[in-house]
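Table S2 (text version). Query chain:
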Amino acid sequence: MAPVNLRGRLVAALIAGQLFLPLHTLPVQAEPVDVANGQAQSAEQAQPTSSGVEGYATYYAKRYNGRRTTSGVRYRPEKLTAAHSTLPFGSKVRVINPANGKEVVVTVNDRCKKRKQAHIDLSKAAAQKLGFFGKGLVKVQIIPLEEEAG
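Corresponding structure-token output:
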């Protein structure tokens, strides 16, 4: 059995850790609030353009090959898929690289971390089609596509 003094220190440290845990999980910066109607704006609403939203694209690292996505399907680098923080699973998104004019249509099947700027995480195949594979980050247009009723 541990001495009472050591046990007391361990309990005190555990309690202190539990008290400070909520401080470390709070967001660093809140989303902007529209004072007129009191609603928060998401990153997608912050920079709308006539053809979607300006944002940034990255691609999945090699270590994610074959892992399950948030939707439950396995990530395959050869598929045209993407992760987005708010768009529903299964939705189609047109992503355009304005630097070279290349574009690709991807299916959202995963979630990514919400960021201040609009952001989409693409599969390796999608990054290659947009011409930025190996560069890491590129500015893009993110255009959610409407599903055709049929």
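Notes on Table S2: Residues 4-25 form the longest helix (22 residues). Residues 97 and 140 are 5 Å apart (CA to CA).
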